[in-house]
Amino acid sequence: MKIASLLSLTLAAGIVGVATPALAAGAAPVGSYTLDSLAIWPGQTVTLTQTALADDDVTDPALLTQTINWGDNTTTVATGAVTSWTHTYTTARSYPVEVALTDGEATGTGTFPAGSTVAVAAPTGTYSWKNSTVWTYESYQNLAVWNASNVPVNSDATWTSWGDDTRTLLRDGTSTTVEHWFGPGTWRPQVTVKNKQGKATPTTAPALSVVTDATPPSIALTYPASPNKASSWATIRGTAGDTQSGADIAAVFLWKYNTSGVEYYYNFGARSWVRYTGQNLNTLPDSVFGMSAVSASGTWSVPVTGLTKGWIIEPQYQAADKVGNWSDLSWRQITLNS
Fold first, then answer.
1. What is the mean pLDDT of residues 285-299?
2. Within 13 Å of residue 129, how many CA atoms lie on the same side as its CB?
3. In its keyword annotation, does this UniProt entry include Signal (predicted)?
4. H or E stretch including 15?
5. pLDDT at position 111, please?
């Protein structure tokens, strides 16, 4: 009986030893994490920080494994001794971030008390040109006007790279207008915004086309109904046109002379006639030219006083386009007999 009892106790002890919790897998590790931002722009970076990590039977964090799934098919594996990681997202969409924890025997999932989904969205912003096509004189630059609106208010800095190795830092606020000089070509400025998460991927603005205008405008004199009547020329009128940058101004120089050889030119600024006695025409003041803007409908006009019958008038006229091309000089001779 004693032998049997001892054997029974031994067997029983062996059975108890096999089932003891000390030899079974323990509880899974537990960890807590936080992301420094849940809303960023493409190209920016988030920082994941471990705020707590514990395991029931492993005291050395280096023996624990943390596997971070960033939600974009990339993972980072580190020991429990590492407490901070960064990750950059390039594409706009939402990314659920997860952390798997293991102590070699049991696996757990990290918790995110403040949220674990990173929403990546393109920064707001509307960019346009006052005129998407700008004309310029050959080998010259011209000014283009660029409009930016709805720029992110949470940007610490917003700047434009024009594509010519120059940049402009936009003024504070969500909308602005910027002027910039461009030479011939196609230009696609890029807008970069930045905050504590870093620089966002640049946004490409609509294209600006800067085209060389090498074609002069055309100009014509408009004859009044009674061209030989002096009073009909109280205003000299004409038309001008341009197929590229557009007609800008018309310039008129006006002579009058008679059959006796007496000559006058008109000073439009002084509204008076000046007798010509051989003066160097290149030294005359600018006021001897009648200048007129060309209207949207392509017309121009300059007023004249002091015309009477018995004179021959000779208006000489040219037009310039908006980049500085001038038409050839044109002139007409009209006899005033009434």
1. 98
2. 21
3. yes
4. helix 2-18
5. 98
User: What is the total count of domains within the chain?
Assistant: 3
Residues 232 and 183 in one domain: no
pLDDT of 172 = 62
Pair (109, 168) in one structural domain: no
Domain boundary among 189, 212, 235: 212
Burial 8-43 (b: 16+ CB within 10 A, else e): eeeeeeeeeeeeeeeeeeeebbebbbebeebebbbb
Q: Decide: helix, strand or coil at residue 27.
A: coil
In a domain, residue 207? The reply is yes
Confidence label for 174 from pLDDT (cuts 50, 70 and 90): confident
Q: What is the mean pLDDT of residues 254-276?
A: 97
CB 185: neighbour CB atoms within 10 A? 13
**Structural domain boundaries enclosing 204:** 126-212
Residues 48 and 32 in one domain: yes
Domain assignment present for 13: no
Answer with the one of 95, 120, 145 that is the final residue of a domain: 120
Its pTM surpasses 0.90: no
Residue range 114-125: average pLDDT?
Answer: 97
pLDDT digits (tens, 9 = 90+) for 150-159: 999 889 999 9
Residue 120 φ then ψ, to 5°: -110, 120
Alpha-carbon separation of residue 249 from 95, 219, 241, 271, 292 (angstroms): 60, 10, 10, 20, 6
